[in-house]
Amino acid sequence: MRGVTYTEGAQIDAPDALLDTTFPDPVPVGRDLLVRVQAISVNPIDTKVRQGAYKQGCEPKVLGWDAAGTVVSVGPEARLFKPGDAVFYAGALDRPGSNAAFQCVDERLVGAKPASLDFAAAAALPLTALTAWEMLFDRLDVATPVPGAAPAILIVGGAGGVGSIAIQLARQLTDLIVIATASRPETAQWCRDLGAHHVIDHAKPLATEVAALGLPGAPGFVFATTQTGAHLPQIIELLAPQGRLGPIDDPETLDVMPLKPKSLSLHWELMFTRSLFQTADMERQHAILTEIARLIDAGRLRTTLSETFGPINAANLARAHALIESGKARGKVVLAGFSD
């Protein structure tokens, strides 16, 4: 089959960073689905794995976790899907990814594609929706108020892929005041269009920007999608005592001792934890994606697709990686189909 492999540690402008190649079709085992990949999207994790920050530990070395496609066949223990089903998923970090014509994925990580979306629009959603859902409801537990805090959440990096769906989930499924950060007029408007009550500039001191909003107290929650290390002193200042901080990025270091005076709690989220450790609740990701699809089809959530870069090949993926690495991406970049 056709696919795109990568050279670990290569810069994106290196000629061998991403390579069009062919390799044998995978074979489903256990609870696997064999999926014909029809669209993918690109996330920061793709660039981090390519650069060597995470070791994928599998062959062939194929990036890509967001995907939408059609089930071709199933493993002997599969029970949730059948051949012909349209699905979307984010896969597992330690298996070959979705930058290929076919991919094996455990069905417990898969949801039925929203009926109202085409494959490209659906492929923009899984990884970011799972990350946002798990952070909001499994890690930060936003349904449980912080005593004395304003019913508010600050989402740092609101226009990114995760921030874009987190804004929508917080608006649709909670009563929280949603504050997003953005530093450019177009990204600020993107956040407002997605439902943010307030948008502040993360290029300015966050505590000062939040204080100027006139909330009835300090926010109880901060969802930090980017630059957590740089923003940490301001986050600590703006959070209410006993507030909760949830980061998803990879700061080189993070000094947590300043959280102690306010008894602030830190809640890491990695969407791949359940699949990496084969946790007992791994099938929760199937349930989350099922609910995301229902909310999409009910018109309560929308896709975060912002740009389509053409068919799946090394050149188009390199463009997408470069955009992600620039820090200027808005929403999600999608590639659909393979060149003939």
TrEMBL record:
Keywords: Metal-binding, NADP, Oxidoreductase, Zinc
Molecular function terms from GO: oxidoreductase activity; zinc ion binding
SUPFAM superfamilies: GroES-like, NAD(P)-binding Rossmann-fold domains
InterPro entries: ADH-like_N, ADH_Zn_typ-1, ER, GroES-like_sf, NAD(P)-bd_dom_sf, Zinc-ADH_QOR/CCCR
Span of domain Enoyl reductase (ER): 10-335
Keyword set includes Metal-binding: yes
Source superkingdom: Bacteria
Matches recorded under SMART domains: PKS_ER
Family stated for the protein in its record: Belongs to the zinc-containing alcohol dehydrogenase family. Quinone oxidoreductase subfamily.
Protein name: Zinc-type alcohol dehydrogenase-like protein
Species for this entry: Methylobacterium radiotolerans (strain ATCC 27329 / DSM 1819 / JCM 2831 / NBRC 15690 / NCIMB 10815 / 0-1)
